[in-house]
């Protein structure tokens, strides 16, 4: 497994990375919550401490959950029931108290990653909305039977929106997916590309703006 280990304590963090690596896993250590938020892609699971130097782990978890469903196991010294319940309700897939027993931690990681794989459905390849046809495999969009030329970013926007037609997609999700970072100032770029895309599609109402949240394709 590829694992992100978010842990500010060097003793705990180094021991964890060493133990996980010794068992054939690729573990990358991060010291701050912000480090995870700017590089959270490509991991099978995240091991998240709650007492972090820059923010509470629960806050980091909430922000992560806006953009990434990656399995998260909280690993913390906080053993009171209230913290455990808050962690699980806050989007953690599992919760362990320090110090961890490595075999148990791995068994729990395997469980949460297995569930995550089972929940992933293969995406639809052809989406038809009115007279707008999106072929995700060929990366082609046709409006009224005629192909339209989109820039790479515009197509990525379409791709992100049509994955679940009718469902709201937040600006954070779009910025994270297309620019690789939901937490820097790419807001303006999103507006520019969205305006360009809408103009080329020329189908008012196809992409609905949801004020204060994001966008929705169709319906
Ligand atoms: Ca800590």
Number of helices: 8
Strand content: 15-25%
What would you say the CATH architecture of the largest domain is? 3-Layer(aba) Sandwich
List the bound ligands: calcium ion
Instruction: Give me the Rg, rounded.
Output: 20 Å
How would you state the average pLDDT, rounded? 90
Give the name of the CATH superfamily of the largest domain. Answer: Response regulator
Which shape, going by the Cα principal axes?
elongated
SSE order, one letter for each helix or strand:
EHEHEHEHEHEEEEHEHHEE
Secondary structure category: alpha/beta
Tell me how many strands there are.
12
Distance between the termini: 39 Å
Helix percent band: 40-55%
Low-confidence stretches: none
CATH topology name of the largest domain = Rossmann fold
Keywords:
219 residues, 2 domains, Arc Repressor Mutant, subunit A, alpha/beta, 5-stranded parallel sheet, 8 helices
Describe the structure.
It contains 8 helices and 12 strands. With 219 residues, it is an alpha/beta fold. It folds into 2 domains: 118 residues, Rossmann fold (3-Layer(aba) Sandwich); 92 residues, Orthogonal Bundle (Arc Repressor Mutant, subunit A), CATH 1.10.10. A 5-stranded parallel beta sheet has the order 2-1-3-4-5, sandwiched between helices. It has a 4-stranded antiparallel beta sheet with strand order 6-7-8-9, covered by helices on one side. A hairpin with a 3-residue loop joins strand 11 and strand 12. Helix 6 crosses helix 8. The longest helix is centred in the middle third of the chain and has 18 residues. The protein is elongated and about 60 Å long. It starts with a strand and ends with a strand. The mean pLDDT is 90. Bound molecules: calcium ion.
């Amino acid at each position: 497994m590829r694992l992100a280990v978010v842990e500010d304590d060097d003793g705990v963090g180094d021991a964890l990375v060493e133990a996980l690596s010794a068992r054939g896993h690729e573990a990358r250590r991060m010291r701050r919550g912000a480090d995870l938020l700017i590089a959270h892609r490509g991991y099978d699971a995240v091991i998240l401490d709650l007492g972090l130097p820059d923010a509470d782990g629960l806050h980091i978890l909430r922000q992560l959950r806006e953009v990434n469903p990656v399995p998260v196991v909280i690993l913390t010294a906080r053993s009171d029931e209230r913290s455990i319940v808050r962690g699980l309700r806050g989007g953690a897939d599992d919760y362990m108290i320090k110090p961890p027993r490595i075999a148990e931690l791995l068994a729990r990681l395997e469980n949460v990653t297995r569930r995550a794989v089972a929940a992933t459905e293969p995406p639809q390849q052809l989406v038809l909305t009115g007279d707008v046809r999106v072929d995700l495999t060929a990366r082609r969009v046709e409006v009224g039977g005629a192909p339209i030329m989109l820039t790479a970013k515009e197509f990525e926007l379409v791709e992100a929106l049509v994955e679940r037609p009718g469902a709201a997609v937040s600006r954070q999700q779009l910025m994270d997916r297309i620019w690789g970072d939901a937490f820097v100032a790419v807001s303006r770029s999103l507006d520019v590309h969205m305006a360009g895309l809408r103009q080329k599609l020329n189908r008012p109402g196809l992409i609905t703006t949801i004020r204060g949240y994001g966008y929705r394709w169709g319906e």
